[in-house]
Amino acid sequence: MAWTGLGITAGYHRLLSHRAYKAHPFVKNFLLVGATFAIQSSAFDWCSGHRTHHKFVDDEYKDPYSARRGFLFSHLGWMLRNYPSSQFDYKNIADLKKDKILCHQHKYYGLWIVATNLVMLPLIGWLVGDIWGVMVLAGLLRLVLTHHFTFFINSLCHMFGSRPYTDSNTARDNFLLALFTWGEGYHNYHHYFEHDYRNGIKWWQYDPTKWLIFSLSKLHLVSKLKRVDDATIKKAQLEMRFKRTQTKLKKIEEFLAIVNAKRDNLRTEFEELKTRVTQERLAFQQTMEEWQALKKQQMEMKRAKFSERLQNADEKMKEQFQQMENKIIYHSQQFEKTFKQLRLVPVAVK
Fold first, then answer.
1. Least packed by Cβ within 10 Å: which of 45, 118, 187, 200?
2. 3-state per-residue secondary structure call for 306-337
3. pLDDT in tens, 43-79
4. Which of 59, 55, 47, 42 is nearest to 18 (CA)?
5. pLDDT digits (tens, 9 = 90+) for 233-276
6. Cα–Cα distance between 246 and 295 in angstroms, integer?
7. In Å, how far are 76, 171, 236 from 161, measured between CA atoms?
């Protein structure tokens, strides 16, 4: 079960679809065999479809398993008919087509299925003395569970959960689904930062796929792990906070208009709170402009290749980046205080 599940999540998904890290050939091929056990199509089909999903997420005509077409379609229905959105020409996987092993798997996928599920499984069953038990539990039951767990990401993870990073698409973060999907449940984060090797970015978030990749990096079996910096993540979270706050402020303002501002003290408190939110947003935007300018300066210096000064400059920039991150954290804390105060307003209104 673990080999199959991680073959999909660490192999097909984060390694091949998103290139979130580089893997030693042994690791890549081990995960490829595990993914083949899942019988979820070849790496070419799976990755091409997944990249299309990210490019056209929620588009009812282009997203292969758009959640906007309902639970049944996004979970299973998209595979039951030859829909136009499910036709792939593989132009979006030019990088994968250069890999001879992947080409072989795609061309002889049926043989790979037979070798894994109809040769290796019975052999394991023979070795443990229970061929039919292995075929039913490690074969049939594993396939059913793995398929549904994978498809839950396409369906339920676009319907239930929180959206702390973006509301530009239907993807949600769902802790419960992460438990069944080897950490893939933090889907809102993934759709906003798709090339990060992590889905659960906090230490307490259940993401065994992340832990596997990180552990393999310590053994020098994988490298070049891509991860989004904390400041960029905090920026996305704060922007969503500001957006939701503006919505709430608008609702409160509409309520005060309805009651005709009879409670002057409440209106005064509301206007002060509204001013604070505006000030916090402006301060946050100013900090982000400074941070982006610093990143641009860093890139320009690296391109210029000031070899004799680059190390010292890097050390100085690390300090400046740390100062920027501290400022962003400060803005986050200040806004959190404001947001908590805002949550009390409806109580006062009632």
1. 118
2. CCCCHHHHHHHHHHHHHHHHHHHHHHHHHHHH
3. 999 999 999 999 999 999 999 999 999 999 999 888 8
4. 47
5. 988 888 888 888 777 777 766 666 655 555 566 666 666 666 77
6. 29
7. 20, 8, 17
pLDDT at 151 over 80: yes
For residue range 339-349, list pLDDT tens digits in order. 565 555 554 44
Give the pLDDT confidence score for residue 246 in this predicted structure.
Answer: 75
- Residues 241, 185, 10, 80: is their CA dihedral positive or negative? negative
> Per-residue pLDDT tens for 33-42?
999 999 999 9
Q: Using alpha carbons only, what angle is made at residue 145 by residues 115 and 86, rounded to the nearest 5 degrees?
A: 75
Say if residue 312's pLDDT is above 60. no
Cα 88 to chain center, whole Å?
A: 23
CA 8/CA 142 separation, integer angstroms: 13
Q: Kindly report the three-state secondary structure assignment for every residue of the chain.
A: CHHHHHHHHHHHHHHHHCCCCEECHHHHHHHHHHHHHCCCCCHHHHHHHHHHHHHCCCCCCCCCCCHHHCHHHHHHHHHHCCCHHHCCCCHHHCCHHHCHHHHHHHHCHHHHHHHHHHHHHHHHHHHHCCHHHHHHHHHHHHHHHHHHHHHHHHCHHHCCCECCCCCCCCCCECHHHHHHCCCCCEHHHHHHCCCCCCCCCCCCCCCHHHHHHHHHHHCCCEECCCCCCHHHHHHHHHHHHHHHHHHHHHHHHHHHHHCCCCCHHHHHHHHHHHHHHHHHHHHHHHHHHHHHHHHHHHHHHHHHCCCCCHHHHHHHHHHHHHHHHHHHHHHHHHHHHHHHHHHHHHHHHC
Report the C-alpha dihedral over residues 203, 209, 215, 220, rounded to 10 degrees.
-130
Amino acid letter, residue 42 = S
Helix axis angle for 230-258 and 310-349, nearest 10°, is 20
Nearest Cα to 43, choosing from 17, 10, 14, 75? 17
pLDDT exceeds cutoff 60 at 313: no
